[in-house]
Amino acid sequence: MAELIVTLLEYRSAEEAMRRRTGDSMRMGSNDLQALRFLLKAQGVGRTVSGRDLADHLGMTSASVTALLDRLTKSGHVQRTPHPTNRRSNMITATPGSDEEVRQTLGAMHRRMIDASRALSDVDAELVTTFLAAMTAAVDDVDRESVSS
Fold first, then answer.
1. Which residue among 39, 41, 104, 147 sits deepest, i.e. has the most Cβ atoms within 10 Å of its Cβ?
2. How far apart are CA 79 and CA 14, in angstroms?
3. How far is the C-alpha of 52 from the C-alpha of 47, rounded, in Å?
4. Residue 57 CB neighbour total at 10 angstroms
């Protein structure tokens, strides 16, 4: 049991280090990169994103998200366009160049992750998926408990 938790913590440390390196190579902070990935994912499924959506996803204040969006707009990674039905809101989208930059930066890592997951049998993949979902729920519950306390 302890070895499993240690291995999970080692994975998390490696992932955090990868995010720092990626952010450094793209000249972005981790929240900037996380915002960009959220925008790209939303665009991939045809979902519009507002500043409020981004703030909720990142757990940030509206003012902090505005500063983040100012940085990403200035760097050419995102654009703001007026919302078609809400005059007080903007739609936030990642620029096409951002999509390509993220793909170039993270593509090889994503391929290695896919290769590692494909090496699992269906039974093992289901077991790992169940475990990671339970760990995600455990972490999310801790966050909710501390907020409601």
1. 39
2. 31
3. 14
4. 16
**Residue 144 near residue 136 (C-beta atoms within 8 A):** no
Contact present, 120 and 131 (Cβ < 8 Å): no
Residues 6 or more apart in contact with residue 30 via CB below 8 angstroms: 19, 20, 23
Amino acid at 115: D
Buried-exposed string 127-140: b where 16+ CB fall within 10 A, e elsewhere: eeeeeeeeeeeeee
| DSSP states of 127-143 | HHHHHHHHHHHHHHHHH
Closest CA to 98 of 5, 32, 16: 32
Q: What totals of helices (H) and strands (E) does the chain contain, helices first?
A: 6, 2
pLDDT in tens, 22-69: 777 777 778 888 899 899 999 999 998 999 999 999 999 989 999 999
Backbone angles phi, psi at 91, to 5 degrees: -95, 140
pTM for the full predicted model? 0.66
- Nearest by Cα to 79 from 94, 98, 61: 94
